[in-house]
Design brief:
globular, 2 domains, alpha/beta, 210 residues, 5-stranded mixed β-sheet, Uracil-DNA Glycosylase, subunit E
């Protein structure tokens, strides 16, 4: 049997997160150097890690490092505590801070990262929208005005994923089909993958690819 070369594994909260992070890695020259999987939502992280630990791939030592990512949403502290707690519960170790690597006994190193970054609120969609403010300022200004109007009438902020969905319509143009599909939208949206908003995550991905 041909021996497996250990590869870093990036765990993403959902399919859309995986698509964005994988595309970011490709734009950073990391195509083929990382493996990506989504764990089916933040509430499923602990169970996913248990299954991962028992998987043949993990047991065979196919993962050199494991990076757990998840969105901060509206509360960074809660998101970090949940991610840290899931890692601690399954692997009996506890990362000190986002992006800090700890060694699993008999296994790879593992770290957790909260998107958009330490102390910040938001999600992967926030990075996509914010990175495009310089490439499509007029469209983003319209989006901000529209969202402000919705918020004032609804009485509470609309979800960031809804904001992103509205942006895919505005950015893709009136004739684009399936523009609410992240998979179809990502290649066509004017996302600045070199924007500083992506820098911490890009640097973390690059650090585990070598």
């Amino acid at each position: 049997m041909k021996p497996h070369t250990p590869k870093p594994l990036v765990l993403c909260e959902g399919k859309e997160d995986k698509l964005v992070i994988e595309t970011l890695a490709d734009h950073s020259g990391l195509a083929g150097k990382l493996a990506f999987e989504d764990y089916g939502g933040k509430d499923n992280l602990r169970n996913y890690l248990k299954l991962l630990k028992a998987s043949p791939e993990y047991v065979r030592g196919e993962y050199s490092k494991i990076l757990v990512t998840r969105d901060a949403d509206a509360d960074f502290s809660s998101a970090w505590a949940a991610a840290k707690g899931a890692v601690q519960d399954v692997f009996s170790i506890s990362p000190d801070s986002p992006g800090a690597w700890v060694q699993i006994e008999g296994g790879p190193e593992i770290a957790a990262w909260i998107i958009p970054g330490p102390g910040q609120t938001g999600m992967i969609e926030s990075l996509c929208v914010n990175s495009s403010r310089s490439t499509m300022p007029e469209i983003i200004a319209c989006l901000d005005s529209f969202v402000d109007c919705l918020n004032s009438n609804h009485g509470k902020p609309i979800h960031e994923k809804a904001r992103f969905a509205i942006w895919t319509i505005a950015a893709s143009g009136p004739d684009t089909k399936d523009r609410l599909s992240m998979e179809r939208a990502i290649p066509n949206l004017p996302i600045d993958w070199n924007h500083q908003a992506f820098t911490p995550l890009k640097e973390l991905l690059a650090s585990i690819s070598s």
